[in-house]
Specification:
heterodimer; A: mainly alpha; two-stranded antiparallel ribbon; B: alpha+beta; Rossmann fold; OB fold (Dihydrolipoamide Acetyltransferase, E2P); six-stranded mixed sheet; five-stranded antiparallel sheet
């Protein structure tokens, strides 16, 4: 194909122009505020909850557990707990998303469209409404709790709400669409002949998944995992409403520090650390997806 | 006999309203190079997949080496497949692709090393061991797929148009490599192709397929020289077809003129009579049997041979003559020639659509 000599340059200029609004938005509303947050984290708390000098590492020291009364692991534990909960949610969503994606792929035509719409319907309802609905569904009077106690999964007379099961169940249902859709996208274009080749060469069901299916859906699986993991780290409404308010999470701390406590530097330090941890996750993902591209 | 080859009994496979494989019964001998030849959609790939276990038949029976295997999953059959698209695992190196079947059986790694090295040696890809499938050429992929399918020493190797995506020059080379490999290993090869030259060049026997049925079965020579049906005659190479009416038991009236045949024609009145273009020759001055005078209407030079269309009486006969330096055997458009349709080269076809 013969191209005019300056077309490459022109398309490049057009490209720059088209990414300008997005970049400006990111810069003004993401990068600048984040730099401000980092700056605040090194300041001290003013007398009436304002931000004041001197510059200090005080907030980070507190975060790491150094307090007036010796070492206290409260905040690292909260951080670890939040990340663990997010990991558990993301893992559950990814595991549930794989069979779901294959089920949707198995549907043809209209049933497939219906299945995809059904998958996204929960997202149309307000999060709080859904969470309160779970309180009713899993409460002491609900048939689900009755069923669980009949099956001896919980003690007689107890309910699933409040408790960890209720929290995880709700998180799973809330975040499942975000995991299932990218997984479905990669399952849909799965090369079936690789599955047949593995079968032909004597692979068991598990080996077929490991060698012929997993490498193909890995990018979608990781994308789905991260799309759940990242927002779930900051989640605190669901654990509060369904967990009985007994456990403190990252989200609770942030809300507390920036709200009632008015300790912005400490809240900012907590934000910075959790952001760095999440960023670590993304870097890990990029590394994985890059090896994928090299191989595929 | 320890190895009985493959036996299909009334094997049938339907996809909705389409019968892809229509009650096929067939015996394939152990150690044979057997080709399934036919146009796309004739059911040859489906038949291959039924043997591999990748499809299950609606009815009928399948035996491999004397064992009933109609409903067995592919993992349990002593059969491996070279897929048309090769289906190499993109995330595995050439070595790991070849080693796949052995790894699935938890064979000790020392044995895997030697057997994979042997298999790669066999198809001359040893130097590619560390490459990934996207880093090698189509011909090399084909060899990797072959080594991967052979590593487990299958009793039967199924090949689904393995050379279809390879350019013509390399294809000739790979054809003879495959044939040599097959005769050295003694493995039964079942080879699906739509390329008649390939089937003729490589096979011990060919099954010509059409609409889910086997139209003709035989050695390449038999299938080519005495095709049973009009379809088999035209699908394998070019063919002059003449509609005939019996004049007397040894003579048939055709559009070319009356033809003398060897067989006695007693129970038929109409049928098709065929002759390959390369079997039509120039008549010598003294010959009289089955000779006709015609005019050259087209002459096409293609290197080793020259193709003529010659109009005799009301019809056009295609004739192929080897190129020669002899000027008397070269004709231009409009030249008059005498041709002979030797009775030994004529074949009678059962009439079907």
């Amino acid at each position: 194909m013969a191209e005019p000599p300056d077309s490459h340059l022109r398309s490049r200029r057009g490209w720059l122009f088209s990414i300008l609004p997005g970049t400006a938005w990111e810069f003004v509303f993401l990068i600048v505020p984040f730099l401000v947050v980092i700056a605040i984290s090194f300041l001290s708390r003013g007398e009436y909850g304002s931000v004041a000098r001197p510059w200090t590492f005080e907030s980070y020291k507190r975060l790491a557990g150094f307090s007036l009364f010796g070492i206290e692991m409260l905040y690292p534990v909260i951080l670890a707990r939040s990340i663990f909960l997010a990991l558990a949610t993301a893992l559950l969503c990814a595991l549930a998303g794989i069979p779901l994606a294959f089920f949707i792929k198995g549907c043809q035509g209209t049933p497939r469209t219906i299945a995809l719409v059904l998958l996204t319907i929960p997202v149309w309802t307000n999060l709080l409404v859904r969470t309160y609905a779970w309180q009713l569904l899993l409460g002491p009077q609900s048939w689900i709790s009755h069923l669980a106690s009949t099956l001896h999964l919980i003690k007689q007379g107890q309910a699933l709400y409040p408790g960890t099961v209720a929290v995880l169940l709700c998180l799973l249902c809330d975040y499942l669409p975000f995991a299932a859709l990218p997984i479905y996208a990669s399952v849909e274009k799965l090369d079936q002949t690789l599955v047949e080749a593995a079968q032909d060469l004597g692979a068991s069901k598990l080996q077929i998944f490991r060698h012929a299916i997993y490498p193909q859906i890995r990018p979608g699986l990781w994308a789905g995992f991260l799309l759940v993991f990242l927002p779930a780290t900051g989640q605190f409404v669901i654990p509060d409403l369904l967990g009985g308010g007994k456990t403190v999470l990252l989200g609770n701390v942030l809300q507390q520090q920036f709200g009632p406590s008015r300790d912005w530097p400490f809240g900012a330090a907590f934000t910075t650390i959790s952001m760095l941890l999440v960023l670590g996750g993304v870097v890990l993902y990029l590394k994985f997806s890059r090896t994928e591209k090299e191989v595929a | 006999m320890s190895r009985d080859g493959i036996r299909l009994v009334h094997l049938t496979k339907r996809f909705g309203p389409v019968t892809a494989v229509d009650s096929i019964s067939l015996d394939i001998r152990a150690g044979e190079f057997f080709s399934l030849l036919g146009p796309s959609g004739c059911g040859k790939t489906t038949l291959l997949r039924l043997i591999a276990g990748l499809e299950l038949p609606d009815s009928g029976q399948l035996e491999i080496s004397g064992r009933e295997m109609t409903r067995l999953p592919p993992q349990k059959r002593p059969v491996h497949t070279v897929f048309q698209s090769y289906a190499l695992f993109p995330h595995l190196t050439v070595f790991d692709n070849v080693a796949f079947a052995l790894r699935m059986q938890q064979i000790p790694s020392a044995e895997i090393q030697t057997r994979v090295a042997e298999a790669m040696e066999l198809v001359h890809i040893s130097e590619l061991a560390k490459r990934f499938p996207h880093q090698i050429s189509g011909g090399q992929k084909q060899r990797v797929a072959l080594a991967r399918a052979l590593i487990n020493r299958p009793e039967v190797l199924l090949l689904d148009e393995p050379l279809a995506a390879i350019d013509a020059k390399l294809r000739k080379q790979l054809q003879s490599d495959l044939k040599e490999l097959q005769s050295n290993l003694g493995t039964t090869f079942i080879y699906v192709t739509h390329d008649q030259d390939e089937a003729l060049a490589m096979s011990d026997r060919i099954a010509v397929m059409r609409s889910g049925k086997i139209e003709q079965l035989g050695t390449p020579e038999a299938v080519y020289q005495s095709p049973a049906t009009e379809f088999a005659a035209t699908f394998l190479g070019h063919c002059n077809l003449l509609r005939g009416t019996v004049l007397d038991p040894k003579t048939v009236q055709t559009p070319v003129g009356p033809l003398h045949v060897r067989e006695s024609l007693t129970n038929k009145t109409h049928f098709m009579i065929g002759i390959r273009p390369e079997n039509v020759r120039l008549a010598t001055a003294t010959e009289t049997e089955n000779t006709f005078t015609g005019t050259v209407v087209e002459s096409t030079y293609s290197g080793a041979q020259r193709d003529y269309l010659i109009k005799t009486n009301q019809t056009i006969v295609k004739v192929v003559l080897l190129s020669s330096f002899d000027a008397t055997a070269q004709f231009k458009k409009g030249d008059e020639v005498r041709i002979c349709l030797p009775s030994t080269a004529l074949f009678l076809l059962s009439e079907n659509g």
